[in-house]
Amino acid sequence: MEKNYKNMYDKRGFTLVELLAVIVVLAVVMLIAINSILPQIDKARKNAFGIEALSFADAAEQYVLENQLTNSDFVIAPGAEKCIKASTLIGKGLLDMDDTKYGGYVEISRNTEGLYQYTVNLYKSNGFYIEGHDGKKEVDPSNVKEDGTADVKTKEAACAASQELK
Fold first, then answer.
1. How much is the pTM?
2. How do strand 102-110 and strand 128-134 relate by DSSP bridges?
3. What are the tens digits of pLDDT across the range 43-65?
């Protein structure tokens, strides 16, 4: 009988200190991994928003071309500027996006040679915004800003009041 008790206490296992040491090491490894992954996730989100901004410029270009073909009065004079609100582009079905998440406008200008330029001023409900971006150039993620949508919203209201294409 005494032998059975001895075997029971003789079993090997991990001590509490050893288990805590493993947990601490795993926590340190996780912190290092998270700190290296988070900046990449933010950069990917900004890249995605930049691609969305370019799609708004493409939609504005499509809108202008379609209206020029179907409406002879639809002309932007050289040197003039007009704008199209993001909600208009979404509402016309040119973009398959949620209009409650996006705001802003695409400014359309025409130079003296008759070429159109599309400038994107866009914000998203997550706080990202881009202002004054040439709609024909790839967006650098450093141009995508955070938490400054008030200026774009103010200009969007001015666009709607004075020079919006409908």
1. 0.71
2. unpaired
3. 888 888 888 888 888 998 898 88
Q: Do the Cβ atoms of 159 and 83 come closer than 8 Å?
A: yes
Residue 61 near residue 165, CB atoms below 8 Å:
no
Distance CA 26, CA 28 (A): 5
**Distance from C-alpha of 85 to C-alpha of 127, rounded to nearest angstrom:** 18
- Per-residue model confidence (pLDDT) at position 26: 96
| Length of the chain, in residues | 166
Distance CA 81, CA 116 (A): 10
User: Which of these, 128, 66, 132, 125, lies nearest to 93 by C-alpha position?
Assistant: 66
User: Token pair for residue 98?
Assistant: 């949620």
> Residue 64, SS3?
helix
Span 93-118, pLDDT tens digits = 998 888 888 888 888 888 888 788 88
Contact 126, 105 (CB under 8 A): no
Separation of alpha carbons 159 and 164, rounded Å = 6
Q: Flag whether pLDDT at 7 surpasses 70.
A: no
Among 144, 65, 67, 161, residue whose Cα is nearest residue 105: 161
Q: Give Dmax (Cα) for the chain.
A: 106
